[in-house]
Amino acid sequence: MDEVQEKSLNFIEQIVEKNIEEGVNDGRIQTRFPPEPNGYLHIGHVKAICMDFGVAEKYNGICNLRFDDTNPVKEDVEYVDSITQDIHWLGFKWANIFYASDYFDKLYDLAIRFIKAGKAYVDEQTAEQIAEQKGTPTEPGKASPYRDRPVEENLRLFEAMQRGEIEEGKMVLRAKIDMANPNMHFRDPIMYRIITSHPHHRTGRKWNVYPMYDFAHGQSDYFEGVTHSICTLEFVVHRPLYDYFIDEMLKVSKPEEWGVPANSRPHQFEFNRLNITYTVMSKRKMLQLVKEGLVRGWDDPRMPTVCGLRRRGYTPSAIRSFIDKIGYTKVEGMIDLGLLEHTVREDLKETAPRVCAIFDPVRLVLNNYEGSETITAQNIDGIEALGTREMLFGKELWIERGDFMEDAPKDFFRLSPGGREVRLKNAYIIQATGCDKDADGNITTVYANVDLNSKSGTEGGNRKTKSTINWVECSSAVDAEARLYDRLFACEDPSAEEGDFRELLNPDSLKIVNCKVEGSLRNEMHAPVLKEGIAQENHYQFLKQGYFVVDPDTTADHLVFNRTASLKDNWKK
């Protein structure tokens, strides 16, 4: 491998290539993405998705999607469906879909073996008592009074727990390890707890005991044949326990009993998680925002969820490019939201057709123009391959109120009485002659003369002006709602602030504007086109306004657009 290619590898890829070279796991590469189906994916998950699926794809391996469904209290089929849709939309394909619940029988069997080997015991203490006895990082914990109860009694009680004979919260199964271990995760961690209050979304009422993450995760990786268990840095302290449970499993059983090759062994590797300014990545906090109606739902375009980003108009290619730009390290940091916005602008500027939308309309009447005609405009100036669109042009047009000033200073180069020439984009040069006002002094109509020999694309249309303004023909214009989204929080790092994070919300994170858009967008007022069950987003650049996407709230009578990003890019490269 040459030096340039070597430098382009992130540290996980370097590990993978070394493992392949050394023949670890016979050079086989298998990863998994293991979300818990208790909420919607957010952009932090996308970083893990790109790593898990990307490594498998790059090194001719496979990546499975495995749902970590070990807590029926919080999990739901709704979340399973949303997660699969989001991963599919991002452009990734899994080899298989698995569930931790696929392994409940094996895990229960393994727990029984741990009990018989004296490596686990049933504890009747409360959660508070167990927590108190854990000790501190500098002080050893205290042994449970139930730690040395006989194996037969532990077996009897654990089986009674599974049969539903023990009340929820009354007993747990703990691993018998070391209450003085400096790694507090080794101080007799809980392996199983009782949950009888909620049925499981797949297994129903079959199980009354459910494995904890630390016991289920490594074993599930092992049963599946995972080689590289890649996760974020908060799991570094869990890695020794991850390895411990696999080691102990291999002491009480043989690989062939689980259908696993003898030389197959998963290893855990960690990278820095994603933190972005002006937002929160806590699933708990996001759920709070949704439940309290502080946002419009999980797919609110201000949310960092994948469905929220999709509804806002972010593209899979832009999101994946953003993840590629920030890279993977072992150092936690904060990423500027401006980089994400910059990335989607870079993506859309080459693909989003340009259209006119007037946000603060005032009527323009052309004194010496009669009738109407069709103006042909390029979808993106200078990119012929993206085609053209037709715009109706007539005597009465909508223009932006800010493009006219009755008493204008010398440095105002848009419409104003007094001889200034302004080009209507893709059309004619005009000069303002005056205006009408209402009783409050507000301008209601602007009047202008047209140079009929100045049409763009004709011999006389090459004359330059200092300003070009946008317009929409009145009779063909479509009334639309534009939702202008800004940052959800007013402070850069809301998670670092003391007090109630909800008080840090940006009151101006959503502004709604009623606007006039050109008639070609009337075609958007129909049911969205579906591709493999996912609505296809139609993106546009509203000239001088920003990048927009059609919102699902659009109906045959009401056209709604979300602003994906403004045109101005303030990201500090």
Descriptive account of the structure:
A 7-stranded mixed beta sheet has the order 10-25-26-27-21-22-11. Strands 19-16-17-18-12-15-20 form a 7-stranded mixed beta sheet, with no helix packed on it. Strands 4-5-6-7 form a 4-stranded antiparallel beta sheet. The radius of gyration is 31 Å and the shape is elongated. The chain is of the alpha/beta class and 573 residues long. It has helices at 3-8, 11-22, 43-58, 77-90, 104-116, 127-132, 151-162, 213-224, 239-252, 283-291, 306-312, 316-326, 337-348; strands spanning 30-33, 62-67, 97-99, 120-123, 172-175, 190-194, 209-211, 228-232, 267-271, 354-355, 357-358, 361-366, 372-378, 388-394, 396-400, 422-424, 429-437, 443-451, 468-469, 472-473, 478-485, 510-517, 530-531, 534-535, 539-542, 546-550, 559-565. Strand 26 (546-550) and strand 27 (559-565) form a beta hairpin. Helix content is 25%, strand content 23%. Mean pLDDT is 93; it is low at 1-6.
Concise description?
This protein is an alpha/beta fold. The protein has helices at residues 3-8, 11-22, 43-58, 77-90, 104-116, 127-132, 151-162, 213-224, 239-252, 283-291, 306-312, 316-326, 337-348, and strands at residues 30-33, 62-67, 97-99, 120-123, 172-175, 190-194, 209-211, 228-232, 267-271, 354-355, 357-358, 361-366, 372-378, 388-394, 396-400, 422-424, 429-437, 443-451, 468-469, 472-473, 478-485, 510-517, 530-531, 534-535, 539-542, 546-550, 559-565.
